[in-house]
Amino acid sequence: MKNFIYLFIVLQIHPVAYAAFEALEKTRITNAREMSDKEFVEFTMQTRRLAEFGVEGSRVLTYIESGNSFFVLKKDLSLAGADLASDAFIGNWPLTRWPTEVNDESLDAFTSNYSGDWYDYGLTLDTWVDRKGIGCLTDAPLRYGDIEDDGTNELVLLLGDVDRTLDILVFSPEQETVTFGMRAAFQDSFPAESPNKAGYEYVSEIDMRSPYPAERIYAKVFVGEFDGDAETTNELIVWRKRYSPYPVGSSNQGFYLDQTSFEHYVQADEYQRQATEQTTIQQWLAANNLRWPDGFPNVSECEDKEGQLIPEMHDPLLNDPDVMPVKEQ
């Protein structure tokens, strides 16, 4: 977003928090203008292979091959898969946001004020070469691997609208469905042209007809064993934060933490939210020395900032000590 103040810091990240996502195989969006001759020849060969499975090469955003598994992300934001050992087409799956998250009424505090429902802003993927999404994560939107270390691979998709949204989906080819989803970022913030009239230094960029206050909403996911129950081996914690701008005349500048939420999920086919007290979840994170910068997504994949904390989600302008490295508090 425009006019944000960012602090770039490289630090060690706790392994339980993000290693599962960091270790995934990933491929960048195919773009002939950025390919070497060798890459272009390989892509042409793969495009011919895709045609055998009924997938037009012109509709392909990117693909990933691992062993005998072959998956394609298409421009209409659907997936296709094939088994190379048997030359069999195994499925075509349209993608949507995870209904469990969208329909969770307890997350209403993290909806957008300007429309009354931030979930109306659906899945999208901006593929402009010269426009980068949050942390450049959507440059490699299709990833594959075993995030739970249970011997089963999943597809992980990182989708978004440049610097406005970032969505994370976990898709199971075996179950042919999204098993987990999280809107990791929703940013609607623009410096007000007339702050005194608007009442805020930062206002909505989506709807500038009225002086709606800006919104910055983020979420992090943590993978690990948290509850101590050997029967629940695949667990996730989601930590959400919502920030609103200080009004004009305040002694503070920027944003303040308006809402926060801690959610505990356990996998049973799809992930299911548990009725775990938020204070208990906070205690689990503290016991594992996990802070906001440790959750995924955390580090940038942009060429000039690779390995540094994603600036939007760790911004001093948020006035939140949680989001900053310990040494900066």
Which key phrases capture this entry?
alpha+beta; four-stranded antiparallel beta sheet; disordered N terminus
List the helices and strands and how they pair.
Layout: H1 15-22, E1 25-27, H2 37-52, E2 60-66, E3 69-74, E4 78-83, E5 88-94, H3 99-102, E6 142-145, E7 154-159, E8 165-172, E9 177-188, E10 190-191, H4 195-198, E11 202-203, E12 215-224, E13 235-245, E14 255-268, E15 270-273, H5 278-287
Antiparallel strand pairs: 1-6, 2-3, 3-4, 4-5, 6-7, 7-8, 8-9, 9-12, 10-11, 12-13, 13-14, 14-15
Give an account of the 3D structure.
The protein is α+β, with helices and mostly antiparallel strands and 329 residues long. The chain is 13% helix and 31% strand. It has five helices and 15 strands. The protein has helices at residues 15-22, 37-52, 99-102, 195-198, 278-287; strands at 25-27, 60-66, 69-74, 78-83, 88-94, 142-145, 154-159, 165-172, 177-188, 190-191, 202-203, 215-224, 235-245, 255-268, 270-273. The strands form three sheets. A nine-stranded antiparallel β-sheet has the order 1-6-7-8-9-12-13-14-15. A four-stranded antiparallel β-sheet has the order 2-3-4-5, with no helix packed on it. A hairpin with a 3-residue loop joins strand 3 and strand 4.
